[in-house]
Task: structure prediction
Amino acid sequence: MTMLHSLYLICAVVGGLIMVIQFLMMILGFGDFNDVDVPDDAPDVDMDGGDVDAGDTDVSGANMISLARFLSFRVIVAASAFFGVLGLWADSAKFHPMVSLAIALLGGWVAGAAVAFVMGFINKLQSSGNVKLESAVGKTATVYIPIPEHKTNTGKIQLSIQGRIDEMEAMTPGPALPSGATVVIKEIVDGRIAIVEKK
Result:
């Protein structure tokens, strides 16, 4: 068994297993793990680059926000699973290792992009009345993607709001907050970005 074959096998098994678990959790109603809940009345973000107005602070580089959204856990899992499955298929078909790797990478990228597109589409369909983000003020949350210091950029937090698990973009006026840190939401700016402080 080659190193590439082992990599394909691990990605297919681990990614596929996590996808099945996520699907079962969704069916059984244990959680709704959306990427970012964006209200309909939230301002548009120029994904070609520009500024995101977050209260009194301008955050440059909307491309970084777009990348963070794309590289969500669910997208990475789907990309890994399809990378592994297609890699195993190409390997069993006796393709050259480099051709097998190219097929696996392309398949994983397409799968990840498709999941990101579907999740973004679902988020756009959600009305602002479904989840009142303002009700999150005062609640505790867990940092999901590290939050840079002094409002220099956004990270992500995960919290329970109105009976569901949601993720939100977040900034902090203080020092950087690592993944796993417990924070308190102080305010919501632009209708979608939480200003948080360490609890």
